[in-house]
Structures are given as C-alpha cells and as structure tokens.
Amino acid sequence: MKVIKNKHFSVYNFRLSKVKLASVFGSLALLIMGLFMVPNFAPEATHAEGANADPTISIIPAGDLELDVNPTASGNFGSVSANVSVSTTNTTGYTFTMSTVGTSTDLTNSRIDYTQSGNQNLKITNLSASTAQSSFANNKWGYNVSKSNTYIKGAANTYVPVPNSNSQQSDKEIEVTDTTGSNTYTFRYGVKADLALPSGDYSNTLVYSATANPLPTMQNFDYAACQALTADQTVTLYDSRDDTPYTVAKLQDGNCWMTQNLELGKYGTSMNLTSDTSNVSSSGYTLNFSYANNSVYKGNSNKYGNYYSWPQATAGSGTTTEGEDAPYDICPKGWRLPSASSTGATDSEFYTMLNHYIATGTWSSNYWSDVNTSNLTNAPVSLVFPGYMDSSNGSISDQNSRSDWWSATASGVSGAFDLHVYKNSTNSSVSPRIRYTNTGGFSVRCLLDKPVIKNGMYMQDVTQEQVSNTPTDVTYTLKDKRDEKEYTVAKLQDGNLWMTQNLALGDSTAMNLTQANSNVGPSGFTLPASVTEGSWTGSDDNPEFFNYAGNYASQQATNKYGNYYNWPAATAGSGTSATTSGDAQYSICPKNWHLPSAGNSYTASEQYIMLNNYITTGTWNSGTFPSWSDVTITEYADAPISLVFAGYYSGNLNDQGSSSNWWQSTAYDNDDAYYFGARSNGRVTPRFSSFKRLGFSVRCLMPGA
What we know:
This protein has nine helices and 44 strands.
C-alpha cells in the first residue's frame, strides 16, 4: 500500500506490486496489474488568505488482487474485490477514472502464442453489455464499482464491460466530485471460465487515474454563466494569470462585477500580459511595478488591492479624447473596465449599478450626497476604502475614507473618469463619473464583458451570441479578413446581422477563397480577376465580376457601390445553369455569412422579412409581381439600411443612381435567379428574377441566434 501526493503539480506514476500466483493444475489465476496515476493539475492560489496553498491528491490502493477460478465443463464464476481511496484538498474536487492501460480488454496468458492457429480464442474477453452474474457466458469478465454501498457502475451481482484507453470519457469515469474530501470505492471484478482454457495466469493492466478538477477561472467564466446566477449571488473565481481568487457577484444591474479590488502584480517586478489571458491587444502589454512608473502598491489584509495609474489600468491604450473608452485594459480576458460614458453621469455603468444599492442619499446633478455607505460596504458590492496613491512620491492618502475605481473613459488630455466615494461621519458622497489626473494610483474592479459586436472586429469572428446581445439598428464597422476591407453592418429588426454596404471583394488578380474565411465548399473557390470594361462574356456558368470601384478607398468615401458579380460568382461556383431551383449551397460571403434566401414565396424572402419591419410609407401590392410601391426611398438611404442605387453591369453600367439589385441565393430556373430590387421611383421588390449572367450587387447576412 502506498500513498501518492502531488505537492509540486507534476505527474507521479506507480505500480502495485505485481501479483504473481504460481500456476495451480486445473486452476486459473486472474492477474490484474494496477497502474495508478495522479496527473498534473493547476495549483490553487497561493495569495488567498486562509486558502490551502499546497493542494494534494492521492490514491490509496487497499490490498492486492488475488483470484483463483477452478474451471468446470459448464463454466465456473469467481470474483475479487479491492478498495481504492481517493482524496484531495483541491477545492474543485477530482475526476476519478478506470480503464485498461491499452486498447485491449482481453485477459491473456503470457505462455500462449496467440499468433499460432487455433490459439486466438484461448483468452478471457470483455463483456459486451451489462450482464447479471447468473447470465455470464464462459470465458468472459467484467466489473462493478460501488461507494458507500451505492453502485456507480453495474449493480449487485451485475457487471459491466471494462473500458479501454480509447473508451468514451463517460465510460471511464467512476465519479466527478466538486469539493475537497475523501472517498473509498469498492471495485469487484468477475470472471467465468470453462475447461477450454489452459491453466495459468491470465492478466491485463488497469489504470486508476485521479485528476484534480481545474479551478474556476475568471477567464473561463462567460456571459451565459453570469446570467445563470441569481441577483446578488456571489462566487469565487481565480485569475489564471497569478491564481489569485476574487469574489464576483451578479449585481442587480444584471452584470457580473468583481467585488474585490484587483491585485495583479508585485512591487519591483514586471509582468508580461498577453491576449490569451488578458484584455490586451494581440501585441501584449508589459505591466511594470515601480513607483517611478506610477505603479502599484500591494494590497493588505483589508483586500485593498493594488493602485494603478490610468495608463497602466488601460494597458497603455487610453486616448486623450474626452468620452472615448480605451479598447484594452489589465482586466482578465473576457472582462473590462466599466465605461463612464461619453454623455453624462447617469449613463455611467457605475451609476447604473450603484443606483440599485444606494438606499439613502440625494442625487444632485453628478453625485449622491448624504449616503449611508454601509449599504455599499456589505456584500454583495463589498466596497472598501483603500484611498489613493500620490504619483509624485508614492505615498498613500485618505486610506479608510476614500475609494476610487478607474473607468475606461478618458476625460481629456491628461485625465480620466472614475468612480469616487468619500466617507465621513456626516456627509458621505458617491460620484459615479468624476474626472481626475490619470497619473494618480487608483483601484481597479473589472466588469464581465457582454459578448457584443464591436467596431474593428473581423466579420468572420462574429458569433451568434454577439449578434443576440447587440442592440438593433446600431451601425458598426467590421473588417473582412480576406482583404482587410471595412464594411458597415447593423443588426436589423429581423434579428439578423446585415451588411449595410455592398461587397467589394476582388480586384485585378484572381483570389483563392477557402473555408477558413469564406462561405465556400471544401475545395475552395477561385474568384477570377475582374473583367475590364466591355469584356463581359455574359455567362450563366462561368463566374465573372466587374470591379467598378477601381480604387476601393475612393469608392468608400463616395458612393459605396461595391463590385458587380454574376450569379455563378456570387454563389462561389455552386450556382450555375444546372441549378434550377432551391438555394445555392455556397457564396462569396465571409465565413458564417450567406446570401439572403428568396425563400419559397415573396413573404418568405429574407429581404421581405427584414424590410417589413421598416417600410411604413409604401403600399404592398400582392399581384403577379408582389412589391411595395410609393415607398419613400430616402428613408432607407441612411443608416441602418443604407440603401444605394448601384445599378447593374452587363458589359457596361446601367441604371446607376436609379436602381439597386442584390443577388439572392435562390435559383428560379436554368437561366434566372432571384434578386432583391429597389427603384428610385419608390418600388421595392423583395423577390424578383433576372438573368444569372448579369452583374448585381452582393450584401451578406449573418443569422441571429
């Protein structure tokens, strides 16, 4: 018996003493060698006050396995049991598994040459399903396991197949715990053998593995996990950058906030932050800890945290434009500094949160006065008063009477906004948006970032969760990874994210599109070089496009007409004259985006569904060619739809300034495909057909969740 502890978070393996039974004439010895593993796991925080800084995990095998089976002509059953104890001081518990060491689950005899003809069946094979002891076939084996007389695998006198190294995790798992503690598991192995097997030792090797479960980190805590909490519920999460634990609460504004001040870093050292674990740019940020750099003062037992200048708090990304939020900060990845707003104190995220908790106090323009701060110092907000650090000499002032949290928002050339709380015996005040010189050392508490679309993102990186959380009719500027061109997009009132500028992909050289960044097939698609004026062939099968822009930057600054694609090009070669109905499978849209579908009726068109939320001045005509008439087109020339009249191309430009035509993914027949059309005379047709050979505009959409 041996106890294995992991104190240094490395891997320890050991074997049970090999059980070798002398062969007994007429008997079988079941030889099970146990390989016990305690794999690597992340350490608990060494900074946590009162926390165990040296978590352990151990496996204690209780005795060796010995099983003799005396075979009979009809088969004889035998079983052997062994206790295995697992314990850990890891606060998130462990995952305990068992399997054979390799892919074979057979019990084999080392004295038998299984390559010889006729010997292949001289072994004990695994059960194929849960089997009662009374129903065992000859020369089979299996196991069950119980804890505190409750069966986890199998049942009393019922056995299940032994998993191998390639089995599903759920088959190998004995138990997953979620707290510290110790448990004893009773494994029972059963075998039935007949006289067809020669006497001797039949063996396999089992692996018992106890792995400490990872700590719940701030970096892995997402918006869905936050929303699953109840209001004012507090949890403890670890910052994976230094394993410091922090209390976090879902407050009554519906957001998750740190309810302890950040204490990232140590005086006199520097720390390289990367975008893998921090809310910094892809180039990273080095946080230096020295008074000369207006750095940090390590927190004390009051959990005051560290003090950071605003340039440090914003990871060097803060601007000098009043009301503009820094794009990065030293918060954990997925978290950010709260915004103090560009418009005023009541729009500050500090105000929105604190307004739920300030029970006494008078709001006056930009602050609350006569506040009972005990409402804020208690959980869940848990405000503390660390004071601030004087950047000129590194001294701490107003400790126990003042609290300042940096926001992400600049207040001018040398200042930034913060939350300022001043406590005294007669008139405590709370200012959710007050400006201070950005070199002062203030505290940091981070806010879980809601996954929304942000300016500058790549179109291919947008997720459906971000679309769902993004407000409607707000325009953002995103980039296409394929050529770095920018496009405005908006989540429109149908719940989908639409391009609100026409696609301008492609130029005078061919472009190879792959599934990595485009909505194309597995073999990819080559968008050919743009045709020159007058060289349009007018093919229903060969992709063609005309690069009207010439100079993309110039076009973006003026008409934003984009390029003109025939239907085979718009559908990335998946739509041709052979496509006579239904939707083409692919398109030249960015990955996860697609051409709008015309559906199977006018009202099923994705453009109809979207526009029906906006067109209020027109009259719907449901005749042969259903459309809206008398639409005030100018209403849709501005954001969020931003309709433009690019016309179409058929060897030369036509109707530019008076018509708009966007390809849809749906074929009409061998010659035609559906498109969305709008005319400057006020007619809007959400589902019409035209020749596949014509060059129309493309706007893509990404579905909402």
